[in-house]
Amino acid sequence: MALEPIVSARGLTKSFGPVAVLKGVDFDVMPSKVSVVIGPSGSGKSTLLRCCNGLETADGGTIRICGQTLIDGGRMLPEAALNTLRCQVGMVFQSFNLFPHLSVMGNITIAPRKLRGLSAAAAEAAARRLLDKVGLAHKADAYPMTLSGGQKQRVAIARALAMEPQVMLFDEPTSSLDPELVGEVLQVMKDLAAEGMTMMVVTHEMGFARQVADTVSVMDHGVVLESGPPAQVLVEPTEARTRQFLQRVLNPI
Known about the structure:
This protein is an alpha/beta fold. Helix content is 36%, strand content 26%. The protein has nine helices and eleven strands. A six-stranded mixed beta sheet has the order 7-8-9-3-10-11, sandwiched between helices. It has a five-stranded antiparallel beta sheet with strand order 2-1-4-5-6. α3 packs across α4, α3 runs parallel beside α5 (149-161) and α5 (149-161) packs parallel to α6. The longest helix has 16 residues, at 179-194. The protein starts with 6 loop residues before the first strand and ends with a helix. 42% of the residues are buried.
């Protein structure tokens, strides 16, 4: 029996005022696979990602995620069902979005305690395991303002993993980091991929796409130009616009 996609979008449309940002996008993420979305700024990548957990409401089309219909023809799941679904969909943002008034431990344990009903002891034990996984076991009592950008993003990844999601969504997770901090975040993501975590990643990191992605999709002007294995899309793309984009990002002036 063929596997069903964990994320499946069909005919997805989204406009902000007169600007059409998504123009009939079809997109799938298969279980235990890494789907990377690349393309120029303003191509609709982040909007597509945000539609996949209800942070943006698509105007048309359908999204199924984790076995549920998130949106159909502009109609979103009711709020209670949407919040339940979001517990299965981890989200890592470009700008970390940690709670500044909570310690690292507090940031990671708050959602499992309030939404999954874990005891304080169980949530803390799970958080310590996750902090060890992302290399920050020594920062459990620190506050976000004392952390580097790379450390903040690794805490944000641990916080998302604490909900034991079926799929992780990453929205340009390294774009706010100084260059020397990018590698530590990408290594955590590579480790997750090696463990079989299903991931949808919007990124400009071509090396990560080449090394880790099972599928690379190229977006431009609200459409998916092409999708396929990285060896095909990044080395022998079929679309002229893809070749132009890759020429700019791989050979900057």
